[in-house]
Amino acid sequence: MAVADVPTNAESSAPPLPTPKQPLYESSTQFKHWRFSPEQLAKSRRELNHAAVESLKKLFDDEEPGSTSAVQFLTPEEERALVVYYARVIGSMCVRIGLSEEVEATATSYLKRFYLKNTVMDWHPMNVTITILFLATKTSNMPISLDYYVSKLPSGKTEAADVLALEFLVAQSLNFEFAVWHAHRALWGIVLDVQR
């Protein structure tokens, strides 16, 4: 054995350096894929809106040339206002059905995430909202029966097939990333720490 191969006392007695622990949130899909600056959000909304408007103009012009001059398309701000409105609708639906705050917060997050990849000109927010809320009951581990859910919806005209029709599209738009880290989770942790 060569002298260089023999460990010195300092090397053999020093414990290995611990690897720094990554906070759980920083390893989550929410942290990795769903955090955006206000500028990134505005840019994404503008690009989606522009693409939807161009697609609709083409459809209108193919159907009847020159017809798009009479059509006023939604702006990104108007689309955002509709999403905010339907986020409030989720809250009132949760009260009506008797769902928890966690389900409401999850559904609201899903709605906002969905419309970061889609526009209200492509998918009507009411149809998306009823699907998202039902999906949120399942992913929040508070499932309810589809028949019960449909019976509690305000219109009375919604059928079970309407709720399920967009479920796969919603899941795809969310990249099948259903975990949502809510702010109240951190607050609950603080409450538990204070109680100790």
TrEMBL record:
Pfam families reported in the protein's UniProt record: Cyclin_N
One Gene Ontology MF term: cyclin-dependent protein serine/threonine kinase regulator activity
Secretion signal span: none
Residue span of region Disordered: 1-24
Example GO biological process: regulation of transcription by RNA polymerase II
Coiled-coil annotated residue ranges, if any: none
Cyclin N-terminal domain sequence ranges: 78-177
PANTHER family reported for this sequence: CYCLIN (PTHR10026)
Protein name as annotated: Putative cyclin-H
Species name: Thanatephorus cucumeris (strain AG1-IB / isolate 7/3/14) (Lettuce bottom rot fungus)
